UniProtKB/TrEMBL annotation:
Main localization, broad class: membrane
Residues reported in the UniProt entry to bind Mg(2+): 482, 484, 910, 914
Pfam families associated with the record: Cation_ATPase, E1-E2_ATPase, PhoLip_ATPase_C, PhoLip_ATPase_N
P-type ATPase A domain boundaries: 212-266
Protein name: Phospholipid-transporting ATPase
Amino acid sequence: MSSSSLRERGLSSRNSEEEDKNSLSVLKESEDSKIHNSPSGSMISAKDYDERSSLAHHKDQVDYQDNLGVKDRNENMHKSPASNKSKLTKNFSHADDEERSDEKKRVIFLNNDERNAEYPFCSNYIKTTKYNIISFLPTALLIQFLRVANIYFLIIMILQSIPAISPLNPITAVLPLLFVLMVSIIREGIEDYRRYRSDRTINMTKFKKYIDKEDFEEIQSKNIKVGDILLVEDGETFPADMVLLKASNGLNAFIQTSSLDGEKNYKKRTLPKDFETYANPLDEKSFKFIGKAVIESPTRNLYSFNGKIAISNDQFALKTNQLLLKGSNLRNTEWILGLVVYTGKDTKLMLNSQKSRTKQSHVEKKLNIVIFFILIIQICTCLLLAIIMSIYDSVDDDNQDYYLGDNNSDEKAYLNFFSYFLLLNTMIPISLIVTIEIIKVLQCIYIVWDSEMFSEDDDAGCHVSSTTINEELGQVKYVFSDKTGTLTQNIMEFRALAIEDEMYGSIDDHIRRKASKLEQKLEMEYSFKSPKLDSLLELRGRSKGSTTVITSKSGRNEITLDGDKEKAIESIKLLSICHECMPEVAELDGEKVIFYQGPSPDESTLVDFAQRQGHEFWEVTEGSCTIKYHPESGVTNEGSKIVTYDIHKRMEFTSSRKRMGVFFTDALDGKHKIYIKGADSEIKLRLDKSQINDKHLEFIDDFLARSSVKGLRTLLYGIRVLDEEEFQEFQLDIAQAEDDVLNSERLLEKVYEKWEQEIVLLGGTAVEDRLQDDVPQTLEDLRSAGIKVWMLTGDKMETAKNIGFSCRLLTEDMVITEVKGKQKAKNIFTYSFYEDNKSMMEDLKKRAIVIDHEALGFLTTNPDYLKYFITISKTCDAVICSRVSPAQKAEVVRMIKKDDPTNITLSIGDGANDVSMILEADIGIGIYGKEGMRAAQASDFAIHKFKYLWNLTLYHGRYNYIRISELILYFFYKNIIFTIPQLYFAFISNYSAQTYFDDYYISFYNLFFTALPIGARSLWEKDIDFKIYSDEEQRKEVKNLFPSLYYVGQRSLIFTKLNYLIWTGSGIFQALAIFLVHYFTFHNAIITEDGYNGGHWMTSISSFTSIIIIVNLRILLTHRWINAFSMLCIFIFSITLFYAYTWMSDSIQFSYTYQTSVMLHTSPLFYLTVLICVGFTFSIDLFIETVKVNLLGRPSAFIRKEINTKGYISPEARQVLDRLVDQNDRKMARKDIEREEYLRERRMRKMEKQQRKIDRKHN
């Protein structure tokens, strides 16, 4: 930025030689005073000072600042431009020692790096990566070996490389493990590199640091320090938490905090009170401030900030209104100067952020437990075989010595233990881990390719960042969702205006149209139509309707609204004046457009509505509001007039007040008025009972009720007239409250409460926050699937509740409990409410809780109440948490996860304020939106619209859980049936640790012969699929069934202990049958006409052949959706491939089975034996599958049977299905109650244990 541009913006200042001399003389004079005080005082730039003094003199100046006298301060007070203007000027002496000793505060010297270096402030360098170049490989390897299976395979690889104990080739263990580790580590590296690139972009962003006068230097964000004064220009993002010192607008600036709290509308930030002189861009001296700030230590609370700043001996209070948060953007303000107060990890954004963590699916955790269990069994089995072998050798030692010579039985048993450990290692196959890794990657590719999750607006589909938790998408129990930009488009639409007993517009559903580019940019849609209102405003002269007279409390002043037209004009004028919006000019396609930005999107919509009805909000200052309107018809045209109203006080909206007001003098009639608008509950409490019209109030109540049913955002508005005496009294009350700096906010609240009374109700408005496409249906289906939906938002409770109704998260048939404030939380979350909730659960009543941040904060710090809140809220169909910070969002997710780790949590959001809860949840979903890329970058899956969550969870998630779970069960089955014959053979081979199968048969079994069939099944297996139907009605009918089938994964009904035992037991029994039949058939049997008898390798090949056929028939039997590629994998790439290898190994001498297969296949005994084994085991498998399908009575089996036989669901079948679903819901509800009872007892025991510890500690 050039010096000339700074001068044009009012940022330049002139330092004359005389001023420099005066400053130096003041320094000298103050030094001579010898009175001890804090570092503050008059500002002199480092640049000018260095030109006039040596380093020694510079030290003297620092000493001066540390010893600034009270006498000098008092003498200079009259010279301070601000000192005569405010009562804020205070003695700053002896405060420094107190502030330094107070650990809860931090002292910052303005633009003084040397002094600030004395304090351990953190740097502004941002790092969200998990690794660096040095730590990447060891840390990534460590993470991989958190898997029990990988540790096991590492041990196997080491043992198999020792020739003394390994009967197998070591290469068969080394290569698969290296492949698994390589794939996993590369994936980790790619994910972390993306985070590194994002961090680098932020750290390298350049900003302008104030040096002196109009001089600035460019510094990178990572080099910004506490105490720096930065220039931030319109549209730029604040690189750190800053305090506003100057603004191009004069006394205020506007920021957008959507990346922090999700609210996209502008918020006003003001300079410290009575800071006008230092903030005046035209005042040369205003650039010459050196001083210090004392502020609170960093906290996560976005809505709290306190401190004070001292400049040129004047002290000013700092509040939240002066704080510019890192991550927010400067809007509608040309430039600002700000003091950096928090940097890096101390900023509120980073304190509300959460470090990324490595996620492991619950199925994988179960798999680790199973692997550990098998490992224990394997060790015990090997130990038992070694002991038996040692005993056997000692008993038959003489016979063995005859041909083997002397041997040490104990040493041999020790070696045999490890040999058998290697032979039985296929009980835990490394190929299972390899297969799971590959299958999950391919499943993710299918998710990315899903055309129903492709956004035409963004020309992109789903993005997958984590391939480790695909199956958890099918097990979700809780969804935690942001509101703004996630459920809603944040596009507001004005729907209706109610005035006394007339309504203009409509609150009924209407045909939707796609918002134009202009409307999307302005984030509002205008389709309001009311011919009745148009005719009324265009009417010349008096309109029909009653006359309303509004009088002051004393009766000495009044206004008359004669007819419906004057009431409508007064209402529209109220909407154009009573707000906190700012006009802004935007350029779209070369066209300049005026629109409005305010603290809430619906407020901007109301101002826009007033503008379209002829009252155009034109300009605003601290003490005025300018409106352009037509005095006759209310329609802006050539006859428009510009009127400026004197604003005496704006009473801003807060979450506790739930209303806002404007105290002003009407330039048209000279009357003193208070306009007020807000939540209906607040406005009704403040109505003037003497001026209430019961008929009008009844109409307004009906308007509110009908609007609420439609999910519209409503408010009421009214007016109060003041006489001259009340006008003077109100001004005096305001002045007195503002004079008390420390208590001004509390005192102003009391003043507002006093004067925002005796209101005359004029009417109400209804605004719709436009939802994203298909959000209501998506939420309804998620709830039907048994998923509990929580909406976590930074919006006020009323807004959040309205959105809850509009998106059908809340419904009229729900029992809704509202919890606002600490006292309400105390009253509600008790044992009696817990019992009531349990009764409602048994009756399948829908329940919901709406709670604010204050109540939530109280509950999280009070275990006695928290235990009931957790139990009750977890079982509710919906929970809405309002005004919650990003950290609170993550805490809520953590609270639910910690209470019951078996429940899968999913968080979805679109802004930086959602990153913490996205990282905290088991599954994080980011939405590509207008809030930036941080949510999408931090997520496991990124989508473009909320409705795609349906496909991601109910479709892909459900399938992936079924596929991965059955893959694991089948893998253990096929490896048990293959490995157990090795165990049986040990008893035949005198425990000699000889292998039953050839080395290459063992290696190729999992690698080639049985790999593709289960792989194909894990990619394409499905029970029902709506996508195969071309008829829309049939497609929709089948799709509507999916929510009722989601319980399978949610309740983890496939990969269970029982199913594992069934599959494993089946494998053990079938392996026994195969081994016994083949061994006793071929042992000493004559195979050929030439008299060749069956031997070990004939028995081995025959057994292996039966195993290959049996495991393929088993997987074919469990297929619910057979396709050509699955059949190809089974019969060509498994059975045929096995036979091809068998004949190849028979022809080429490289294995033990050389020239064995030809002889074996010439014997009819071989075919008969294989047929008996296959037929017997297949009959058992067929019986088990038949029982599972027909006797368990699950909805999924019934639906599949109906669709496969008839192709549709008949009305009779629908009734049966509804009954099954109801039975299933009641069964699940009972299990939930039992589970919560167990968890409640566990919480109680934990609390009692903690209390005993406390008691012992005290005793």
